[in-house]
């Protein structure tokens, strides 16, 4: 026995099939276990980068606002550059100096600004060159000035009796910034570009000048101080969640450590103390929330993969015993204890388990490096994944040893109990579990809720198909064995031998068949979930975006000059329309004929475009509004619009493009809506109502054309907006991962079947050789 223990670490090298089975089982367990921290890290990094891209590198960076005397402006600019280098901020700052002024003609408020490469980051309407004086399109229209004209500026006459004056030659006119909110260069200046509410006037526009021109103009206008803004952009190329957390803490520490000695006119006692800030912490919060929304799905899929890997590890333990049945029988005859055999089996499995652990962990790391953003593999993520993979490998080895323990022969006094247990069909257990899982599913206990109240399936939802496949496969295998035993006697000789071998296989062939069926069930279920997610995301994209491109516009805007692609506008009102119960309703109003040309829809039922003719030709009494209602719209006969009850007539039900998730919606003819509103004496459009423009075609062609148009749409989105959502991307990645686990399990089950057949053939050859030595004729050797 001592020799067996000494040889145990390398014993499985003599059994390549068993060695491979153990290594693959542990590799699957390690890969499934390490998926949770790896996928979470990947989702965090992807979500964070999406947020940083949304708010721009400048918005997520470090912003410092200060001010001081005109004479020290150049010194403050130099101090800001030195400050960034001293604190190792990722990029050099974008520097802005500014002060207020007025136009002589018309007395319009403006802000004279010298900002790093400002004129290169605006849309040029006319003019050329980046070093001259640039005015906004709005200022050009109100003053009647243009490229080449002279812009006279003065101090605000409200604060001085003898204001200074100066004259600037205009080098160019740029498009108004309030229609260019997507420009990342101005992400930190939205509050100085956009009005606080629709009724408020626009803030003063910027007169963009070089730094030397700003100093000259400030002296001419008798300005004694200027305001400074220093923006240190973030470098998103290798940004990870952990790195962003550290950078956010660094920003806070830097903001608290600024003193007057930094040359920035900051610190206690200064007239213009510094203000610092960064949107990076907000981006981190949004990324964490998006990870929370999908973390339940990730954990459940990982647990499902671990369950499959555990079953395979147990099957590998049974296969280990069956593959070495002669050796096991000899050990039993010599009095080997089952516990000693199981412990030595665990020692024998250590080498292939270590190889499987390295392989499974390596595959998980490679997958993360391939699919996740660069830089996701930080030290903490690797350590967490390695610990989970090691724990899973240890559990797999323990399960393998327990399976070997249960497969080891027992003494006769245990035979009665064993026969009683074996007399109970094992399929009863998984089928009973299916009943329990179905009960939980229909009772609502199969769902859990996260901190945001969103429902997520529990593990029972994912275990249901695997357990059902195992139980049904067991019944099929049992029925097939009995059928083969009864009908095989009349079959041809070759078929008879095959059926005889299948009928005599008993437990091992059933285990292989059940493992294969379970693996196929997991793969099919993952494929179904993935297809359902893709379909749901696509449908939500069509409903939410309406067409290929959607943009927000003012409800008073109209398309006066046709575009080279189908386009239409629609009113969207989600603030003035409610049901009698108080439930809000989204009202979409447009031209049915134009909507039919512009709206997009996939290959799904309930195409809203098919219902538009009913809306266009609907008849109703004066004051009654025909509507196409969403599927969740209640059976009511009136809507409350701005406190007035408006009778409606539902002519059809279909998904309503432009609606909000969870809100009932109606689609109406804009002309009929205007007539009904006039009949009931309500405003159309109502206060705070919005509007969208929908366009159909290539987004790369549509977006520039809409941006240059007089509509000035903001927040342009495409159908990819939903598909690129981090939660959708994370869920799709999770389902792909589970599908890969299912494929691996299928391959392992098929390989196990082939190994089993090879083992049976080897046993048959040994039996045939023994019969020949005993003098049995070859004709009997079947």
Describe this structure in words.
- The chain has 782 residues and is an alpha+beta fold.
- It is built from 23 helices and 22 strands.
- The strands form 3 sheets. Strands 1, 2, 3, 4, 5, 6, 7, 8, 9 and 10 form a 10-stranded mixed beta sheet that branches. Strands 15-18-19-17-20-16-14-21-13-22 form a 10-stranded mixed beta sheet.
- The protein is flat and about 130 Å long.
- The protein starts with a helix and ends in a 9-residue tail after the last helix.
- The mean pLDDT is 79.
> How widely separated are the two ends?
37 Å
Estimated structural class: alpha+beta
The total strand number stands at 22
Q: Round the mean pLDDT to the nearest integer and report it.
A: 79
Indicate the low-confidence ranges by residue numbers: none
Percent strand equals 15-25%
Largest sheet: 10 strands, mixed
The number of helical elements comes to 23
Would you summarize the structure shown here?
Helix content is 52%, strand content 16%. It has 23 helices and 22 strands.
């Amino acid at each position: 026995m001592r020799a067996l223990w000494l040889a145990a670490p390398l014993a499985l090298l003599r059994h390549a099939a068993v060695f491979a089975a153990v290594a693959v089982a542990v590799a699957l367990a390690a890969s499934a276990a390490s998926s949770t921290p790896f996928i979470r890290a990947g989702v965090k990094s992807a979500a964070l980068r999406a947020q940083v891209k949304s708010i721009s590198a400048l918005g997520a960076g470090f912003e410092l606002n200060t001010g001081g005397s005109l004479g020290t402006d150049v010194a403050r600019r130099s101090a800001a550059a030195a400050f960034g280098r001293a604190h190792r901020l990722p990029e050099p700052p974008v520097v802005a100096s500014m002060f207020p002024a007025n136009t002589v003609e018309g007395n319009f408020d403006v802000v004279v600004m010298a900002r790093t490469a400002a004129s290169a980051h605006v849309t040029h309407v006319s003019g050329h060159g980046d070093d001259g004086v640039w005015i906004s399109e709005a200022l050009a229209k109100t003053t009647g000035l243009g490229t080449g004209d002279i812009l006279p500026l003065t101090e605000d006459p409200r604060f001085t009796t003898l204001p200074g004056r100066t004259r600037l030659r205009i080098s160019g006119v740029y498009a108004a910034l309030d229609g260019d909110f997507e420009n990342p260069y101005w992400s930190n200046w939205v509050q100085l570009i956009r009005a606080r509410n629709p009724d408020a006037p626009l803030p003063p526009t910027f007169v963009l000048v070089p730094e030397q021109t700003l100093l000259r103009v400030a002296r001419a206008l008798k300005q004694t101080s200027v305001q400074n803004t220093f923006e240190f952009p973030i470098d998103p190329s290798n940004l990870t969640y952990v790195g962003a957390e550290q950078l956010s803490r660094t920003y806070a520490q830097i903001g608290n450590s600024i003193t007057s000695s930094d040359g920035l006119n900051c610190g206690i006692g200064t007239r213009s103390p510094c203000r610092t800030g960064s949107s990076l912490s907000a981006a981190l919060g949004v990324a964490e929330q998006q990870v929370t929304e999908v973390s339940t799905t990730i954990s459940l899929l990982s647990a499902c993969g671990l369950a499959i890997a555990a079953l395979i590890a147990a099957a590998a333990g049974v296969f280990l015993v069956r593959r070495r049945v002669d050796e096991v029988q000899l050990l039993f005859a010599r009095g080997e204890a089952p516990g000693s055999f199981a412990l030595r089996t665990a020692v024998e499995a250590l080498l292939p388990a270590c190889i499987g652990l390295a392989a499974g962990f390596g595959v998980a790391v490679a997958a993360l490096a391939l699919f996740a953003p660069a830089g996701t593999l930080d030290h903490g993520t690797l350590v967490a994944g390695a610990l989970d993979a090691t724990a899973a490998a240890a559990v797999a080895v323990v399960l393998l040893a327990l399976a070997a323990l249960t497969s080891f022969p027992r003494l006769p006094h245990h035979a009665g109990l064993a026969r009683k247990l074996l007399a109970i069909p094992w399929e009863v257990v998984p089928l009973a579990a299916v009943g329990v899982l179905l009960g939980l599913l229909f009772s609502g206990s199969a769902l859990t809720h996260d901190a945001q109240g969103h429902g997520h399936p529990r593990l029972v939802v994912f275990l249901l198909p695997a357990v059902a496949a195992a139980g049904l496969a067991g019944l099929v295998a049992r029925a097939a064995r009995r059928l083969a035993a009864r009908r095989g006697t009349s079959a041809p000789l070759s078929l008879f031998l095959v059926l005889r071998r299948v009928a005599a296989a008993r437990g091992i062939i059933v285990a292989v068949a059940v493992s294969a069926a379970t693996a196929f069930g997991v793969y099919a279920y993952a494929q179904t979930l993935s297809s359902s997610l893709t379909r749901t995301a696509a449908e939500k994209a069509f409903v939410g975006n309406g067409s290929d491109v959607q943009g927000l516009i003012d409800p008073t805007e109209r398309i006066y000059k046709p575009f080279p692609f189908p386009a239409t506008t629609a009113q969207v009102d989600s603030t003035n329309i409610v049901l009698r119960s108080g439930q809000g309703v989204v009202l979409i109003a447009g031209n049915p004929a134009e909507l039919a040309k512009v709206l997009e829809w996939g290959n799904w039922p309930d195409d809203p475009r098919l219902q538009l003719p009913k809306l266009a030709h609907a008849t109703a009494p004066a004051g009654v509004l025909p509507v196409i209602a969403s599927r969740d719209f209640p059976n009511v006969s009136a809507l409350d619009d701005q406190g007035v009850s408006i009778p409606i007539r539902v002519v059809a039900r279909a998904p309503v493009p432009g609606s909000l998730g969870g809100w009932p919606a109606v689609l109406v003819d804009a002309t009929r809506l205007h007539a009904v509103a006039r009949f009931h004496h309500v405003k159309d459009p109502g206060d705070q109502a919005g509007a969208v423009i929908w366009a159909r075609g290539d987004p790369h062609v549509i977006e520039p054309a809409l941006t240059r148009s007089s509509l000035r749409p903001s927040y342009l989105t495409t159908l990819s907006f939903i598909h690129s959502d981090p939660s959708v991307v994370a869920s799709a990645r999770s389902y792909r991962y589970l599908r890969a686990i299912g494929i691996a399990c299928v391959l392992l089950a098929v390989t196990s079947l082939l190994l089993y057949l090879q083992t049976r053939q080897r046993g048959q050859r040994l039996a045939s050789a023994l019969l020949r030595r005993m003098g049995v004729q070859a004709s009997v050797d079947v």
